[in-house]
Amino acid sequence: MNKKVYEYLQTCEDEIEDYHKTQGLKSDTYERLVHVNLPTVEGLAEFLGVARSTVFKWAEEYEEFSDSLEKLNEIQKRKLIKGALGGHYNSTIAKLILSANHNMVEKKEMDVTSGGKPIEGFNYVAPDEANN
Q1: What structural domains and CATH numbers belong to the chain?
Q2: Is 89 in a helix, a strand, or coil?
Q3: Long-range contacts of 90-96 (CB under 8 A, 24+ apart)
Q4: CB atoms within 10 A of CB 46
Q5: Residues 50-80 as b or e (16 or more Cβ within 10 Å = b)
Q6: In 53, 76, 94, 112, which residue has its Cα 20 to 30 A from 47's Cα atom?
Q7: Dihedral Cα 91, 92, 96, 101, nearest 10 deg
Q8: Model confidence pLDDT, tens digit, residues 15-48
Q9: Residue 4, SS3?
């Protein structure tokens, strides 16, 4: 089964399409389209001809298959980060998948005061008191 996962991962290469967009008097314009082929659990399930739930069941039962599934997720994460940073992937969609599948969320700041008054249960030190 791990061999099949490896075969599936080999099919997950993005396709780059360059096409001639316009012809101008001084220059031509070309556009590059990236057809993303991201490895996913759903894609693996389709490749294997089984339900998504079966893939997760196998991962629970077989350690080697679980490792292969983890490798799939690591490749997905790496491709999303590199693709979004390189401008080839839609950054909003990449962010959504990274937060849903890989627990990568933005750091959030919390205000622990309510109208300038400390909220019960929080230790709050006013900025001017912190320096004393």
Answers
A1: 2-130 (1.10.132.80)
A2: coil
A3: none
A4: 13
A5: eeeeebeebbeeeeebeebbeebeeebbebb
A6: 94
A7: -10
A8: 888 777 776 667 777 777 888 899 999 999 999 9
A9: helix
- Partnered with residue 29 across adjacent β-strands are 22
Place of tokens 């490798």: 71
Q: What's the pLDDT at 95?
A: 93
Angle in degrees, CA 111, 113, 116, rounded to 5: 125
Name the 3-class secondary structure at 31.
strand
pLDDT in tens, 70-108: 999 999 999 999 999 988 899 999 999 999 999 888 776
Q: Which residue has the tokens 């890989």?
A: 102
How crowded is residue 89: how many other Cβ atoms within 10 Å of its Cβ? Answer: 21
- Cβ neighbours for 34, distance < 8 A, ≥ 6 positions apart: 14, 15, 16, 17, 83, 88, 89
**17 vs 111, more confident:** 17
pLDDT greater than 80 at residue 120: no
